[in-house]
Amino acid sequence: MDGMADLKPVDFRGLDEASLARSVLEKLIYAVGRDPARAISRDWGVALSLAVRDRIVDCWMASTRRTYRDGRKRVYYLSMEFLIGRLLRDSMANLGIIEPCRAALATFGVDFDEVLESEPDAALGNGGLGRLAACFLESLSRLGISAYGYGIRYEHGLFRQSFQDGWQAEDVEDWLTMGHPWEFERPEVVYPIGFGGVVESGPDGRPTWRPSEQILAKAYDTPIPGWQGQHVNTLRLWSAQPSQLLDLDRFNRGKFLEAAERRVVAETISRILYPNDSTPEGQELRLKQEYFFTSASLQDLVRRFAHEHSDLAQLSDHVAIQLNDTHPAIAVPELILLLVDRHGMPLDAAIETARGCISYTNHTLLPEALECWPVGLFGSILPRHLAIIEQLNDRFLATLPITTERREVGIIANDSVRMGHLAFIGSHKVNGVSALHTDLMKQTVFRGLHSLFPDRIVNQTNGITPRRWLYECNPGLARLVREAIGNGWVADLEQIEALAGHADDPAFRASFADVKLANKERLATEIRRRLDIAVDPRALFDIHIKRIHEYKRQLLNILEAVALYRAIRDEPYGDWQPRVKIFAGKAAPSYVMAKLIIKLINDVAQVVNADPVVGDRLKIVFLPNYNVSLAEVIIPAADLSEQISTAGMEASGTGNMKLAVNGALTVGTLDGANVEIRERVGADNIFIFGLTAAEVMAKRANSYQPRAEIEAQPALREALHEIAAGGFAEGGWQQVQPLLDNLWHHDHFMVAADFAAYAATQRRIDHAYGDHAEWTRRAVLNTARVGWFSSDRAIRGYARDIWQVATN
Q1: CA-based, 20 to 30 A from 163: which of 241, 260, 402, 724?
Q2: Residue 520 is a catalytic residue
Q3: Residue 654 is a catalytic residue
């Protein structure tokens, strides 16, 4: 604390060490309320966050004033998830003040890295969908596009994952327990959200919705700065509040729990991300959540527009609304409702106005993810919206040629409201997120609609922000790249292609390999700390980090690991390439098959890791509670990136991009963005195997027989027999029966069909990794050639082709 006596009055919002030190001290004492002599890392972290936030606010206010002054069109990005992760390092990096902040804390004898680790990881998402939304918000700021991100301020968010005897256990995530210093509570920004009730005709014949239940949506704002703080946008998250805090009459009659019932019910809306919807109650909550944040967001943007403009017919000239997947598809009837019921616009004009504003990103071809709500449930919760959807559907169907199959294209079919179709019909543009996914959308889920509107579907391949996923998470590689080609790639990732010229330089390759080894040593330390498993950093680090789902085929990976384990035991003196298989990801609480896959991986890991015959030649690690912060440790350490989804089922992927830009080679199917990654890195620098999307569809159409596939592959057959016999867990077949039975008799995700090709490719990978100089050359080329997969490039595409807004 000796440095405190030397602090002199300085600019409180300067970016130099002295100004930052003074500001941090002021925040610690007067905002955190902590004596510096007693402060812990979390206290210093909050103080530093508040000091950095002050500097962002100056840019934020300037950006907002500029938007109003210039009459800029705004983009509103609606997403159920925003997986923003920790914000302190991200914010410091974008302002260019990491080192001054480090020095400022050193003034007080405070460990900068411990302070960064004390920040909770915001639990506002589950995987690629939410992380994409976070990358897009940052890129919107980087490109100077005026934008709001709209979502839910989940009190607990997604669950905290742990393992009990190998099984996934879900615990409450407590990321908000100690507050969130980056946000601003907006108690004056509150909107009523109704559910249920009836729709009545008023004296003028106009419909009036009278909800039977009403809650309030209160706003919390977080500023999202772009590179160098040149523009700052807003993430506005909604928290559910009761319209009546307490039933005082019931309370005074001693009915204490009943008196608080409305508050508990209301706050449930924003408590948990993705509640278990396997029950009617869970389905109702999920639908209410989606309507809650969508309605609040649309009320907010219409209010903002009306404050500046008088003619709502011009809404689409000033407002672009992007639906991130089907969750906010209710925006279509909700915007129509606002225009018709509250502002008196004729229905047909309201439909066209809404369509002019709204565009829709489809992220999946899986039927369950496209969301279909039973008409009865939908009507009981949102009766006015169901009536609008029926009118929209009737008007749409009336325009079709008589030969059109209406059941294929209608919004309502089989007594269900199809939210994907609603989003398509209510949008002026619909985009896929990779070239392959976009083509498959046209051929499968939206085939009929595409034939009617052949210009509506466009492609915008996903991207990642280079600031978070290289510059910040991999400082060693960022420094090496900067020394080789300068720093322009941070703001324009496509400039990193210049690095390809260094791939044949032995000195550069050696430095590149040294950085990778240091990152692997860091991850090995983290594995030892979390799981008490020792791994060799010089082994091949084989990374499979994704949401656990059958189509992502963690099962294929672990079955190949079992076959490899058996082969090593059978030939213990063979020339085996040491390998560490690292898994991370969460299974949805109600997804039984995904949970069985987790159990199997953990059971196999327990046996393999303890086998002295195998030793360090194969280790299997499943790191619990995967989140952004853990990803930032794993990804820089990866040698091999597992992107092995069943072809035709992964829309794009963004993990494949993050891993590739950090120098990992990809093993994968021709699925999602893997197709485009291969085009850019070259076929020699990626390991492609397995069935194509067309071949998968053909096999399914021709009565695919998985048992025959399994019986024809001794390595797979024997691996399954050993699992069934209890070789990896007591209980054997009975414990994982549904998983294995499904594989033998159904295998919808083509695990058996692709096993032989996958196993053979893995042995090619072993051989390739043995030539470490050549492997490093390939790794350098992966980093150099994936600059196109930047979220900046993706947002430029949205701005040009969908939103019609200018970028800087």
Answers
A1: 724
A2: no
A3: yes
